[in-house]
Task: structure prediction
Amino acid sequence: MSDRRSLVTIDSVPATATDPGGTGGWVPVRAATSADAEGIVRMRSAHVLSRPLDEEWIGRSADELAPRLGPAGDARAFVVDAPDGTMAACALGVIHSVLPAPASPRGLAARVHVVATRPGFRRRGYARAVVTTLLDHLADVEDVTLFELHAGVEAQPLYRELGFTGSPALMRMTRPAPTATETATPVAGSSRSGASWLPPEQYAETVLKATAFACVYFTDEDDRPLQLHSVYSPAHPWQLVGGTMDPGERPFETALRECREETGLTVSGPPRLLATVYGLPGAAWPYSTIGMVFDGGRLTAAQIGGISLDPREHDPRVLPLAGWEALMPARDFARLTAVAEARRTGVAAYFGAWDWGDE
Result:
């Protein structure tokens, strides 16, 4: 591998360390060579195709891909190596000609053909790293301006964040080449230098999409948390009083409205934030989730007994914090614990791991 990393020909651009999320989690990405063709084909067979290829077709496909990864070929790929020298992740793009048009003034487009990560290496930013490196190389080195791909459910949020729009069956993105009057200063929301500013409605399609919610945390006078049982979400059976924000609402306004609608209670006083909650998208929901939990104070037994609920939607329960653990998924109980600790200490919590996962 070391000799491949040192070459500077087109079929082996030097390895780069990319920080796909801007979090300091650097990922070593290298350009693929013809020798990587079989590994890429096997990654596609095992982790992309609904029906894996047999050995005959793996061989035929690898023989076809190998020369196309060379300097004169039409394929470009980037990979992340596993510690044992095998392939942990890869992204393959195929360049093709199109008629010149405003979106493709040089008549070049590319299809992102393969993006795959082995299960043991997922959630490390590897897919983002190889895809962004591939897109930047195709745009900056190969002069490609029009990109297209087919997206699976889990991958859609990533591709939309990178700038792709359209239906999952065919997502597209245009990255205009810089003009002579443009500088090399990166444009907000773009991963490459020299890109032109997009109109607001187009730029809005490239940024992170998220749903937002707001909740109210109540306890009884003995500081035992109150939660509502939900008939709508078997994966999250017990929830705080609250719900999804409506357009035009501010978080505390959502919390007050949902509290009033769900329980008949009215929260008074200025908002006191106990926690912010963030979740990554998953199979159950294609967008990130951002939430805020406000302190609703301590309720008397009479107030709890007077809670008015639609029994088809919720029923309330008050338990000591430890008593909730057996009734909730571990991640939900961890969030409840963080909120309770924020109430106790007076220090707002940040709970950044309430991901949707695969439920």
User: Anything to note?
Assistant: The two ends are 39 Å apart (CA to CA).
